[in-house]
Amino acid sequence: MPAQNRQVPLPSSVQAFDKRRVAFEAWLLERGSAIKQITNPYEVSRFMGVDTDCIVYRKANNVISHWSGGAAEAYRAFLDGAPWRAGARGKRDPKRTNVVLSLARRDGWACVFCGRATEIETVTIEHFVPITSGGTSHMANLSLAHKDCNAEASHLSVREKIEMAVRNRRMPAMDAETPPPGSGRLD
Ligand SMILES: [Zn+2]
Asked: I want to staple 16 with a disulfide (CB 3.0 to 4.6 A). Which of 11, 20, 73, 128 is the partner?
């Protein structure tokens, strides 16, 4: 299993980003994206991604500090010549819908991270071990999650993610055993 560092590093400074900015922005436009106006001095780049804006952030010293909204995935695809396309996901592919429905059948519709209900239109499929780290698309590695919760959890280690999921997972069987306060007197 050659899990070598085949990943090209992302630009780590504004200067490095700017070297390829024109090529990157042209690449984005060819793939249905739009270059957006930055909204504060800490944004290096803002563009339309998949379902949301992608933003590249810098610190005061021009070091790039954060890639949000799928910006890193877009830039990697640019570097690797991999397929990428901006815009709403639109029509769900039926394979994905099947996976979502299978997960809902297994776990219910609650978000694995916050426990609140998800909806089929907006739910995302969480990979506990990311594909980029060798994770699979086997059901055992997948759960349903809100897009925001999923994005938040992406900074966590696999262990932290699972701990968070276990903490928040609704356990209907256990809930059913816990009588509401004031009911079920034993004497
Ligand atoms: Zn959630």
From this structure: 11
> Which residue in this structure is represented by tokens 């900074």?
155
Q: Which of 80, 105, 129 is at the close of a domain?
A: 80
The CA 144 to ligand 1 mean position distance, Å, reads 9
Q: Is 186 a domain residue?
A: no
pLDDT for the residue 37: 93
- Give 49 Cα–ligand 1 centroid separation in angstroms: 21
* Ranges of the chain whose pLDDT falls below 50: 1-3, 5, 170-187
Give residue 142 CA to ligand 1 midpoint distance, Å: 14
Does the residue 12 lie in any domain? yes
Q: 69: alpha, beta or left, given left = phi > 0 and alpha = psi -120 to 50?
A: left
Is 55 in the same domain as 99? Answer: no
Tell me, in angstroms, the distance from the centre of ligand 1 to residue 70's CA: 18
Instruction: Note down the domain range covering 148.
Output: 94-170
Cα–Cα distance between 140 and 125 in angstroms, integer? 12
- Cα–Cα distances in angstroms (integers) from residue 155 to residues 106, 128, 129, 160, 167, in the given order: 26, 12, 12, 10, 18
Question: What pLDDT is recorded for position 57?
Answer: 96
CA of 40 to the centre of ligand 1 (A): 28
Beta-bridge partner residues of 186:
none
pTM to 2 decimal places: 0.48
Question: Are residues 107 and 63 located together in one domain of the fold?
Answer: no
In CATH, what number is assigned to the domain containing residue 20? 3.30.310
